[in-house]
Write a structure and sequence with these properties.
With 364 residues, this protein is α+β, with helices and mostly antiparallel strands. The chain is built from 15 helices and ten strands. The two termini are 43 Å apart.
Length: 364
Amino acid sequence: MSIKIFRDLIRQVEYVINSECGITDENGLILACSNENKVGSTIERFSEVLESDNELVKLDGKIYQKVNINSKYDYIVYIDSANEDSAKYLALISLGIKNMGVYYDEKFDRSNFIRNIILNNILPGEIALRAKELHISGNVFRVVFLIRTEGNKDVHPYEVIQNLFPNRMKDFIVAIDEENIVLVRELKSKEEKKETERIAKILTDTLNTELMVKATVGVGTVVNNIREIARSYKEAQTALLVGGIFENEKNIMYYDNLGIGRLIYQLPTTLCKLFLNEVFKGEFIDLMDGETLHTIQKFFENNLNVSETSRQLYVHRNTLVYRLDKIQKLTGLDLRKFDDALIFKVSMMVKRYLDKIEKTDQER
């Protein structure tokens, strides 16, 4: 916060308090004081105040009140007196500083403003006005990256990402919680797909190699209005969620590339179960062994090409044909035909989705 705000506050209270009073930072440097000659000097034995477990500390005839704003003691208020009224005065001054801190964060902190947009904590009609106050462009191209990290962190990923993207005028980095961080990146145009891919790769590579943590990135679509940042964020969330079900081997998921997985995710589970029962009469899909599943996966990866699939599986062509015939007898689906292969592919995705839902319900 501006030191001028503190000095104005002290000037207002010094007429009520007949003792010297002041505000220091976390290092004991006096930022504002009723005795202006002391501004810029340091409180003696200040370390003893900080080391005390109490928020209210009496030392050398003075009384100190620690002010907690951002989960730490950002400021300390003191009065050169230790009577009962002094503690009451300090409590009121501390309350005033806390309220000013909240107001300052809401009105003047750019990252907090972006956070409020993302979490829908600000009215749509106020966004344009607040953006103008903070000198943030309202109509430029931006894309949201949602970075999720797992594992022990000696260094918080937030600090690493800040070092990667130091331009605070164009890029905004917001810590949602311990595992989720948002990067709102400004782009030159809407068609900068390569730039988006490059940034996502930088994020995953840096976090995986430098911090040795598992990092996955969800990428929303490009928007050109500051109000739409929230939509891009929700898309990035969906990308991580849906991608984690259908493409869990990847560490970068794009909302634009979710394809049919996004459609399946939006279907009711009852409808998904009904579809599976219609396609697979009986329990065949649950009884498939690893070899069969691997064969089917390779067959799909090679665009239903029998020769190429058998070559990659190191099996004779006739062996692969036998396996496909066996699947056809059990399911009625000939995977060599596009329509049947499509039905089988969708069915496997639906099964994976239902398994994920069931596992999540059990964990709850």
